[in-house]
Specification:
Layout (H helix, E strand, L loop, with lengths): L1 H23 L2 H17 L1 H15 L5 H33 L6 E6 L10 E2 L3 H5 L14 E12 L6 E9 L3 H4 L4 E5 L8 E5 H6 L8 E4 L2 E10 L8 E4 H7 L4 E2 L1 E5 L2 H14 L5 E5 H45 L1 H9 L4 H31 L3 E5 L5 E5 L4 H28 L2 H6 L2
Parallel strand pairs: 4-9, 6-8
Antiparallel strand pairs: 1-11, 1-12, 2-10, 3-4, 3-11, 5-8, 6-9, 7-8, 13-14
Helix pairs in contact: 1-13, 2-3, 3-12, 4-10, 4-12, 4-13, 10-13, 12-13
Pfam family, one: MacB_PCD
Subcellular location: Cell membrane
Membrane topology: Multi-pass membrane protein
Length: about 425
């Protein structure tokens, strides 16, 4: 009995290792494996017998479709949930990564990891603007935007509950620093006035942000005068003149300074000059690196959470497949025994049952991936970012995620069909033929 338990444990561990290896296999290795299996099925005697036995079993699926649908629906649920969760993480990460550029630098207080805990004094701004490496506009002014952010509360359109939103104050050069920002409705705010432009994503997610509406913020009335699009994290924000915002909220310092540099060489020159000036104990990084770091933690958490949830559901789907295929083997006991009696050996029988299970798993994987793509691809949501305000982003169901979901489906089918297939191959012929 101890040997049997040890054998069972080793079998389960072996299957787990095989599944992990299968999930991480690149598509080229999977394609090579599929070609090898197809070659064996088509060009060897055992393979052809396996195909013939599988054809008989698959032909009887319509009579067993109620039970077989348990495998299809169960695996479709696993794949759908897994792909949706991973698409959420990828969408959030892609949104933040699109927010950055290699020729736009962000300046923060030394040691600060985010704008929320950064402070840059006003007398440091002229020193920053005088550093080499900064690009200049047509008017000759350095392309520098001193900024601060204020978290405000706005009602969500989905459930009308109060939600944290980032209210960003930007300098007059912000439009030239962030060239991807473009007005799609209305106009830009006028410096010195309490006027706001809102991101397209923020307008879609939060109430009261239509052009012409008035918002009461900081005990002052602000007028929405325009809507902008940027296809990045800034679409979740409200923008206003930084000096007007600082006056309203009694802010005496900035939190960050965004600088457009003269290309990659300009960034290196700007960073070196910043580090060489003892009056500026500030950190400099490209906005691409900055936002990539901001996205890392949450996207990894979502991916891990999705994998764990998918793994738990996969265990349930495996048991469903096991139960269904054991029942199918029991129902077809006489049929399988007859096949073995006329010359079908154990390997073709095992392969036939496995092919039948893998076909059902493939159907479930395709169904789950299709549903995830139809329901969640480009679905817009918002979640709490590192600055304690909502970030609006879209789910991103990519071909890579669909491929991952399909591999999970086939892995579940492999485990769910293996033990019933072995039982079918070991079924005593004489006993099975006597069953009614």
């Amino acid at each position: 009995m101890n040997k049997q338990w040890m054998w069972n444990i080793l079998t389960v561990l072996g299957l787990l290792v095989a599944l992990v290896v299968w999930i991480v296999l690149p598509w080229s290795a999977v394609l090579g494996l599929a070609v090898a299996v197809a070659g064996w099925l088509l060009f060897t005697r055992s393979g052809r017998l396996s195909l013939e036995a599988a054809r008989i079993g698959i032909a009887s699926l319509p009579q067993r479709w109620g039970a077989s649908s348990v495998i299809v629906v169960g695996i479709a649920g696993v794949v759908g949930v897994l792909v949706a969760m991973l698409a959420m993480g990828d969408g959030f990460k892609a949104t933040l990564e699109r927010s950055g550029s290699d020729d736009v630098a962000i300046v923060l207080r030394g040691g600060s990891q985010a704008e929320t805990n950064s402070v840059i004094m006003r007398d440091q701004l002229p020193l920053i603007q005088s550093l080499p490496g900064i690009a200049r506009g047509e008017d000759g002014k350095p392309l520098v935007s001193a900024e601060l952010s204020q978290v405000i509360s706005l009602p969500s359109r989905s459930d009308h509950t109060d939600t944290n939103v980032q209210f960003r104050g930007v300098g007059e050069q912000a439009w030239a620093v962030r060239r991807q920002v473009r007005m799609v409705e209305g106009r830009r705010f006028t410096p010195g006035l309490r006027e706001i432009v809102v991101g397209k994503g923020a307008k879609a997610q939060f109430e009261g942000l239509e052009v012409g509406k008035t918002l009461a913020l900081g005990k002052q009335d602000w007028t929405v005068v325009g809507v902008f699009a940027s296809n990045d994290v800034h679409e979740s924000e409200l923008w206003a003149d930084t000096q007007t915002l600082s006056t309203t909220y009694n802010r005496s310092a900035y939190q960050s300074v965004n600088v457009r540099t003269a290309g990659a060489d300009g960034f290196k020159q700007f960073k070196a000059a910043m580090e060489a000036d003892p009056r500026l104990k500030l950190d400099v990084d490209t906005t691409r690196n900055y936002y990539s770091k901001q996205s890392g933690g949450l996207s990894k958490l979502i991916s891990v959470l999705g994998t764990v949830i998918g793994g738990i559901m996969a265990i349930g789907a495996v048991f469903g497949a096991l139960n269904t295929m054991y029942a199918a083997v029991a129902t077809r006991a006489r049929e399988i025994a007859t096949m073995r009696a006329i010359g079908f050996r154990g390997l073709p029988v095992v392969t036939a049952v496995m092919l039948e299970t893998m076909l059902l798993a493939l159907l479930g994987g395709v169904l789950g991936g299709l549903l995830a793509w139809l329901v969640f691809n480009n679905y817009t949501v918002s979640t709490l970012g590192n600055n304690f305000s909502q970030v609006v982003f879209q789910f991103r169901v990519s071909p890579q995620l669909l491929w991952t979901g399909l591999k999970w489906a086939l892995g579940i089918g492999l485990v769910g069909g293996l033990f019933p297939a072995l039982r079918a191959a070991r079924l005593p012929i004489t006993t099975a033929l006597r069953e009614t």
